[in-house]
Amino acid sequence: MGRYHICPSSYTMLTFIPTPIGNPQDITLRAMKFFEQATLFLCEDTRQTKRLLRLLEERFGMVYPEADFLSFNEHNGAERLGQISERLETEAVVYVSDAGMPAISDPGQLLVAYCQEQGIAYDVLPGASAVTTVYAASGFESGKFLFFAFLPHKGKERAAALDVVMNSLHDTVLYEAPHRLEKLLGEIRAIDARREIFLAKEVSKKYQHYYRGSAEELDTQLAVTTIRGEWVVVVQGRKQTEKSLSFDQVLALELPPKTKAKLLASLSDKSTKAWYETLIKN
After folding, report:
1. How many domains does the chain have?
2. CATH of the domain at 192
3. Measured CA distances, 161 to 38, 150, 153, 197 (Å)
4. Sign of the alpha-carbon torsion through 87, 35, 98, 136
5. Phi-psi category of residue 119: left, alpha or beta, with phi > 0 → left and psi -120 to 50 → alpha
6. Both 66 and 145 in a single domain?
7. Residue 123 β-bridge partners
8. Cα–Cα dist 54/21, whole Å
9. Disulfide engineering: 40 pairs with which of 93, 112, 223, 230, CB 3.0-4.6 Å?
10. Which domain CATH number covers 75?
């Protein structure tokens, strides 16, 4: 494998590196070079990362790094920062998720915030992301979308988040587990059976499959299908001619400030952050 020059200082910093979301051939040459030079790996799951590195070594000739591997996740992230703070400033450290773009719906967000607060140099390499890949495949024309990751599993929080999705003028991208996909389709169908939806199963993997249709059509179709694997859901935005909540109605709803801010932002040109700041001041 040919080599190319990267400024040596690029290696003495923290680098967030995307990993393939399915097909290992989606790894980049640049990512492999950083892997080879790293002395510390921070991983969502160290076992998953080591399997990927061995695969890259076997198939593409990457040199397996002589490095330490530490887990960094939502459970131990805060504690881990105290253990590795000095190494973040003096070594070639990489952070990887199990799959896809790090720090997007991922504990790497904590690490990014820490680097910003402490003035620690970091970089993020471009790479595979299920969010943008599936939205591009959806064929929806607006070009504007919200990303919600996983909705709350149940209760008022889930209902409130789904209200935001269904009332937004923008398309919305969601992640969903196979055992909850049928429930989600039923919920959307109950609100608006004609709402257009795009589903992507097992993106870039062997059993990848796309579905597009109304909530009613897809709910019926998948009711007789064995639902397995990982799913990305794109819900088309509400048409402006459809009935929607007014600002006064939204303001009167008993919702958490973050949820209410998202709903207000979907009804205006004001950002979610700006609405949130307004709500918590009042």
Report:
1. 3
2. 3.30.950.10
3. 40, 10, 10, 17
4. positive
5. left
6. no
7. 15
8. 17
9. 93
10. 3.40.1010.10
How do residues 95-143 score in pLDDT, each as one tens digit? 999 899 998 888 888 999 999 999 999 999 998 889 999 999 999 988 8
Nearest residue to 223 (alpha-carbon basis) of 171, 190, 181? 181
Cα separation, 158 vs 162, in Å, equals: 6
Residue 3 falls inside a structural domain: no
Which distant-in-sequence residues (6+ apart) come within 8 Å of 2 by Cβ? Answer: none
**Co-location of 48 and 89 in the same domain:** yes
Q: What domain range includes position 38?
A: 8-128
* Three-class SS of 34-81: HHHHCCEEEECCHHHHHHHHHHHHHHHCCCCCCCEEEECCCCCHHHHH
Using the Cα atoms of residue 204, residue 207, residue 213 and residue 215 in order, give the sign of their dihedral. Answer: negative
Question: Cα–Cα distance between 24 and 201 in angstroms, integer?
Answer: 17
The contacts of residue 106 (CB under 8 Å, 6+ apart) are 44, 97, 100
Record the pTM: 0.74
CA dihedral 94, 97, 98, 104 (to 10 degrees): -160
User: Taking the CA of residue 85 as centre, how many other CA atoms within 13 Å lie in the half-sphere pointing to its CB?
Assistant: 10
34 touches 125 (CB < 8 A): yes
Helix intervals (H) in 91-154:
108-118, 130-138
Q: Output the six-digit token pair for 249.
A: 């109605």
Structure token digits, residue 147? 């990303």
Q: Give the model confidence (pLDDT) of 63-81 as tens digits.
A: 999 999 999 988 888 899 9
Examine the domain organization and report whether 94 and 143 are in the same domain. Answer: no
65, 71 in Cβ contact below 8 A?
Answer: no
